[in-house]
Amino acid sequence: ASRRDLARALGARAALPPDDALVASVRELTDGGAHHVVDTTGRPGMLDRAVAALRPRGALALLGLGGEVTFDMMRLMTKGVRLHGVMEGDSDPARFVPELIALHRRGLFPVDRLVTTFAFEEIGAAVAAMRDGSAVKPVLTFS
């Protein structure tokens, strides 16, 4: 199953493909633009789309964007967008990890559907699965 199929199975109201209709679809589904966008793709081209999908004074959280990106900051400023850079999360692990465990025990956080394990010797397959989207969170194991 694709990541979008999994998102729908886990309760997402919509799981949109990153095609040319993405921004228009988000704006339609959210009655004019999203209040919040979390971009986990790490793809520089998604930054423009994320800002375009936000409503005025929306918030954008960027995770995993590496390297330099050229972007017209006036687009953020004229829309009043709040930009949050997220590195390694900002939660308190002493509180957050027990919450995740409790959610998992109640069947609300299906780790087994999010994690795909690969033997270390299959690192190439793990990278390929990450890139093609067939693995949400590839994890290498060592025997």
UniProtKB/TrEMBL annotation:
* Record-linked Gene3D superfamilies: Medium-chain alcohol dehydrogenases, catalytic domain, NAD(P)-binding Rossmann-like Domain
Say which family it is in: Belongs to the zinc-containing alcohol dehydrogenase family.
Q: Which UniProt keywords apply?
A: Metal-binding, Oxidoreductase, Zinc
InterPro entries per record: ADH-like_C, NAD(P)-bd_dom_sf
Under the heading Pfam families, the entry gives: ADH_zinc_N
Q: Which PANTHER family match?
A: NAD-DEPENDENT ALCOHOL DEHYDROGENASE, S-NITROSOMYCOTHIOL REDUCTASE MSCR
Cofactor(s) needed, names only, are: Zn(2+)
Checking SUPFAM superfamilies in the record gives: NAD(P)-binding Rossmann-fold domains
Q: What is this protein called?
A: Zinc-binding dehydrogenase
Which one of the record's GO molecular function terms can you name? oxidoreductase activity
Alcohol dehydrogenase-like C-terminal domain residues? 2-93
